[in-house]
Specification:
4-stranded antiparallel sheet, 36 strands, 487 residues, mainly beta, 8-stranded antiparallel sheet, 1% helix
């Protein structure tokens, strides 16, 4: 094994394992496709004009030869061998008692013997953080690949964005950004990787809970350059009797829960979206919130309000191509009203947004049972060649949402709440076994179990497999990501 070897061409990564080349291409959302972590073996691949810098560990090519490379194709031997398998990154908060442990990332790898237990490596923050909210495999423009993490911590410890690289038997971190926002806790809550500045180089987009800060970390001259963006949108909402107006911008603090990226209008520019809201509460009070779009124009980020919600908000949004022939859609899971209370009904509303003539067009897709839905993915779990929207609710199970032959939205159950549930109920879709169907990987926080759900074509139903038990008093897994081979 000699890789991963990053190949720095816009939208393309290259990995070499045991003399076999694997490639993956980024989607219109700017992210690696979920299936297989995106790795496929091409029938043809260009070998000429690549330069390997062993000191930097990079594979590059001259941009002047880009067009010519399209004409130089070398057929690879068909050979055999399974697709490369890596593991999973499980970011969250872990408790041995009522107090959280120091922030830790679980790196779970499958055993060589299918009957053996999974191997779990623990990466600890070592900086007084008590939660990792997300982790991502990342290949920077300069330097070796590593694992990106965002963390949260009690004041005065900052919220961090760090890049971790393995050195021998330990992990060493490079701090890319840190921030203190004045709250009791400071948290970087979500991040995505995409070229949102339009320079052909991948950026790191981060959002925070306290104060609702948006950070774009660019790669310039071999360095990471963070840029904080302050919201200028005044999002006015009204109380039920329309007698009182208040601005989310003027509330302290504003929390941003999610960031998503995607070229939603198909013009070649990747936009990104955020979900600011009033602070979380479980008292039954309304928690209003917005969906906001950021677009890079003339060196600055222009903000556009997509939709404001008076009594509810979105924690989970997803930018994905449900229809592979169309630009990505923005999906939102609008949480129920009066969370923690008895009022407001007991459903989550799934909405979709498409773009026409430069404006967003909203569509109500369907309600889901329960007030909380905090994970969505886009994948093909039954192998019919059509993508589905996979929604993971808190207590009411996991659903596949799709369009039938008449174009009507339908849903079917993948797992019931009695099998898998949790306050976050993190999930991810990956074609792990290479059969052409994506499996759904989910952590049941309540049962402290990591499971794989897969479609049984003969029975026309979903089956489950237990992969890992968590030996903690309680857990909150905030994110699951694929770790590629060689890491």
């Amino acid at each position: 094994m000699i890789g991963p070897v990053p190949f720095h061409s816009k939208g393309l990564d290259v990995f070499s394992q045991d003399g076999i080349i694997w490639v993956r291409k980024r989607t219109l959302t700017g992210r690696i496709p979920a299936s297989d972590g995106g790795w496929v073996r091409p029938k043809y691949f260009c070998l000429s004009l690549f330069t390997v810098d062993e000191e930097e560990g990079m594979m590059t090519m001259s941009r002047s030869w880009t067009l010519f490379l399209g004409l130089i194709l070398l057929a690879l031997p068909l050979g055999c061998g399974a697709k490369p398998q890596g593991g999973f990154l499980l970011a969250g908060a872990f408790f041995e008692s009522s107090a959280p442990l120091p922030a830790r990332l679980l790196i779970a790898r499958p055993p060589a013997d299918p009957e053996a237990d999974w191997d779990v490596e623990v990466l600890e923050s070592g900086d007084n953080s008590n939660v990792f909210h997300k982790s991502l495999y990342f290949t920077p423009l300069v330097g070796e690949p590593g694992i990106l993490t965002i963390s949260g911590s009690p004041n005065p410890t900052p919220a961090y964005v760090k890049l971790w690289r393995k050195k021998g038997d330990s992990w060493e971190a490079e701090t890319l950004y840190s921030g203190v926002y004045g709250g009791k806790f400071d948290r970087c809550r979500d991040m995505e990787l995409a070229d949102v500045t339009g320079d052909g180089i991948e950026d790191i987009v981060v959002v925070t809970h306290q104060r609702g800060v948006v950070i774009v970390i660019e790669q310039k001259d071999g360095k990471f350059v963070p840029r904080e963006i302050s919201s200028t949108i005044k999002s006015w909402v009204k109380s039920d009797d329309a007698a009182e107006e208040k601005s989310l911008e003027n509330q302290e603090p504003v929390w941003i829960h999610e960031v998503e990226t995607g070229d939603v209008n198909g013009d070649g520019t990747i936009e990104f979206f955020t979900t600011p809201s009033a602070p979380n509460n479980l008292s039954g009070d309304d928690q209003p919130g917005d969906i906001v779009m950021f677009r890079h124009e003339n060196g600055e980020f222009k903000e556009t309000l997509i939709e404001a919600f008076v009594t509810r908000h979105a924690k989970e949004i997803l930018c994905a191509q449900l229809d592979k022939s169309e630009p990505p859609m923005l999906f939102a899971a609008i949480e129920g009203e009066a969370i923690g209370g008895d009022g407001g009904g007991a459903t989550t509303l799934i909405k979709g947004y498409t773009w026409k003539d430069g404006k967003s067009v909203a569509e109500e897709i369907m309600p889901l049972p329960g007030k909380l839905c905090r994970f969505m993915s886009c994948s093909d779990t039954d192998g019919d060649g059509k993508n589905e929207l996979i929604a993971s609710t808190s207590k009411n199970g996991i659903y596949s949402i799709f369009k039938d032959e008449n174009g009507s939205w339908k849903k079917r159950s993948i797992a019931s709440g009695s099998i898998s549930s949790g306050f976050e109920h993190a999930s991810l879709c990956v074609d792990w076994d290479g059969d052409g169907r994506d499996e759904v990987f989910a952590v049941s926080d309540n049962a402290k179990v990591f499971r794989r759900f897969f479609y049984d074509a003969e029975r026309e139903r979903y089956q489950s497999e237990k992969l890992l038990n968590f030996d903690y008093n309680s857990i909150f897994i905030f994110n699951i990501e694929v770790l590629p081979p060689g890491m």
